[in-house]
Every structure is written in C-alpha cells, then in structure tokens.
Amino acid sequence: MNTTIFKQRGIGLVEILVSMAIGLFILAGVVQLYATSTVNAKTVSGAAAIQENARFAFSRLEQDIKQAGYAGCFSLKSAYPRQYFSEAADDYMDVVPRYDQLVTTNAAAGEENDFSMFVSGENDVDVGSLAFDSLTVRYLSAKSRRAVTAITGGNQIYASGLTDFKSGEVAAIGDCSRVSFFEIGNTNSPEVDGYVEIASGSLGRQYTMASDSSGTGTALESAVAYVYGGDTGAITYSIGTSAAGNALGESCSSSSPQYCALRRNNDELVEGISAFDVEYGWQDVDGKLYFHTADAMNAARWFFVDRVRVSATFNSIESAPTNDGSPLLTKTYARTFLMQNQLPVDYSRLAAGL
User: How many distinct structural domains can be found in the chain?
Assistant: First the structure.
C-alpha cells in the first residue's frame, strides 16, 4: 500500500504583512466608527438634555406667570390703591385699597412680599463673571384655599384641612370684597391646631368677619371668607451655582456655565443655564405693544404689565463637541407668557372716574 506524504508549508512573511495591513485597515475603520458614534451620542444626549430642561423650566414659569396677580375673586390690579392711566407720565389717581400688604419687614415697594407689585424683577444681577435677570411674581394659591369657619381674637383663623399651611410662611384671608396678606405665627402649627394664627405685627390692624367679609349674617359671612396658603406669596426665579457645582467646589461662571442653575425660590429647577433674560410688556387699548427690561420700569409701568417675555439659553452640561469648537452644546428659547389676571384696562375711563 502506497502512502503519499504531502509536504506542509507555513505562512510566509508576505502573507503575515498583508494580513496585518488588512486587519489594521479594518481596525482603523472600527475605531473611527466608534469615535464618530461616541461624538454623535454625546451630541444627541446633550440636545435631549437641553430640550427636556427647557420644557420643564418654561412649564414652571408658565404656571407661575399665568397666576401673577391672582387674589381670589379679583386681581391685585383691581385692588391696587392707585389706578394708573398713563404709563409715560406716571399719572395716577388714588382709590380705596381693597387689600393689605405685609407690613413690618415687607412694607416698602419692591420688597419680596410687597403685594402692591404683582410682578417685578431685577436686570443683570451679577453671578460670578456672568449677569442674569431675576423675576418675581406674587399670587394667592388656589389649590390651598380653605373655607373659614371662625375667627377668634382677630388673629386666629379657623378652617379644616390646613396641611399646606406652615408657620413663618405667607398666607392670606379674603373674599370677593377684599384680601389681607399676613405671616403665619412662628408658634402656630396649623395642621395640629386647626387654625392659622396671624403673626404679631404682620398686619396693620385686626381682621374681623363683620368688616372684612361681604354679606350679612354670621352664617353667610363665615361661608364667603377663605384662607389661602401653601404656595401663596412671592415666587422668585433667579440663577445661582448648582448643587453639583457646590459639591465639586465649582461655581457658576463664564468658564463653567454648566454649573449655573435656575432656581425657584430655594429649589433648583434645572442646571446648565448660560443666559436668562426677562422683559415686561403690556398692550394698551389702542393695541400698541410695549416691552421693557426691569431697569427701564417705573411704578406705572409695573402696574400695566400683562405679559412677560423670557429668553433663556440652555447648555448640554456634559461635553458635547460642536462645529464651532465649543465644549458645550447650547440652544436659546424664548416665550411670552400672558398673565391671566392682568387684562388690559381702559385707563382713559379710569382717568375720567368712569
């Protein structure tokens, strides 16, 4: 039996070099594809973060701005102690006030809880090496409205379900005839006590059912008065260093705008704010539209405001390379919000006393 023995040969140097060249070419393509995919993923993720932050921030702004000036059955504008009829000359006539603002530390115009201004703000507030606007709106919280059952001693307001009422916070009592703002006493626990106590000195006078509630008869007077709390008071939107920035020892600045955060009072809403600008506008009875920044406003102009325009630039927070070489992706959004409680008024009729 013949056995054929085949001669075996190994892989030559040329084959190895060719195989390596092909492998490196394929590997380079894979690496390039991975790098491109990573950059695209960061860009998509950054764009999604910007869009979500903008959606959330503007939705909260819309909720508050729409309620600005809400004071129960009437708006703060209708209860204002002066009725303006010329935004240019600051002309006005005094009317009988139908509300009391907080006194003591909040009596001066422009103070946080001065309800003679239902909307206000500051222009170009310094934050690190950047400047941002701030916005403050004031209103009663309808979701925390409770019917008053009794008032004792002129400073204890009884009602049921006072879970949202906390000591030291701003509250209000009123009906369709007037409203009074006050501070809840620091020793009062409304949820436990069953009543809201007006802090000493937070009102210039005592509140009584007979003089401050409409209607006649004890039962009717008790039924038409309400106490408002929870979110009642001043809501201020401002920019500061984010919680993440504080944790890392970083601060909001032009070199690190990813650590700039939009705050609603003391609560951080979103981070990654590169710009926040606010303008205040109104439309007169002739249809002319006005818009001014906070530093161009005066008493009459604040009174006329019935819309707020907000422009904000959001960044991707995380690195997301852009075509211009910037480390962060950015996008600017602008919206105008109408204040539902500040409808245009015929000021010529007010001036004529009609």
Answer: 2
pLDDT tens figures, 121-144: 999 999 988 999 999 999 988 888
The verdict on 127 and 255 lying in the same domain is yes
Pick the residue with more confidence: 107 or 45?
45
Close Cβ partners of 35 (under 8 Å, ≥ 6 residues apart) = none
Query: 266 vs 262, which has greater pLDDT?
Result: 262
Distance of alpha carbon 19 from alpha carbon 242, whole angstroms:
54
Give the 3-state secondary structure of residue 289. Answer: strand
Statement: the pTM of the whole predicted model exceeds 0.85? no
Rounded to an integer, the average pLDDT of 151-180 is 85
Give alpha helix (H) positions in the chain: 13-67, 190-193, 209-212, 218-224, 243-248, 299-304, 347-351
**Same domain, yes or no: 347 and 285:** yes
Arithmetic mean of pLDDT, 149-166: 87
Identify whether residues 167 and 201 lie together within a single domain.
yes
Average pLDDT, the chain: 80
Tokens representing residue 105 in the block: 């530390």
Q: Residue 155, Cβ neighbours under 10 Å: how many?
A: 19
Q: Kindly state whether residues 176 and 222 are assigned to the same domain.
A: yes
Token pair 């630039």 in the structure block, residue = 313
- The pair of structure tokens assigned to 119 is 């909307």
Q: Is residue 26 part of a domain?
A: no
Q: Please state, as a whole number, how many other Cβ atoms lie within 10 Å of the Cβ of residue 48.
A: 11
Strand partners, 335: 310
Mean pLDDT, residues 270-299: 90
Instruction: Give me 349's structure tokens.
Output: 């009729």
Tell me which residue range forms the domain holding 195. Answer: 142-228
Name the residue type at position 108: A
| Cβ-contact 136, 302 below 8 angstroms | no
The per-residue pLDDT for 7 is 60
Residues 261 and 152 in one domain: no
DSSP state of 199: P
